[in-house]
Design goal:
mainly beta, Beta-lactam/transpept-like
């Protein structure tokens, strides 16, 4: 079962992403359409792996980056 899933787009970086977690596991998939690359992160933790996925993807680097707080 996928709990707390979200699909959204961040502009102007053009990253489409999806995340979710259940029973002590979490996941993040992100796709940077402008750069033509993607990343999937699977974690055996109930903590979010979104920030790791965004860092691996390099999302936001073109416009000064994300606020990782």
């Amino acid at each position: 079962m996928l709990v707390a899933a979200l699909m959204s787009e961040y502009e102007p970086d053009g990253v489409t992403w999806h995340n979710g977690d259940t029973g002590g596991f979490s996941a993040y998939a992100g796709f940077d359409r402008a750069e033509g690359r993607g990343v999937v992160v699977l974690g055996n933790t109930d903590r979010s792996v979104d920030n790791l996925g965004r860092r691996l993807l390099g999302a936001g680097e073109r416009d000064g980056g994300f606020d990782w707080a």
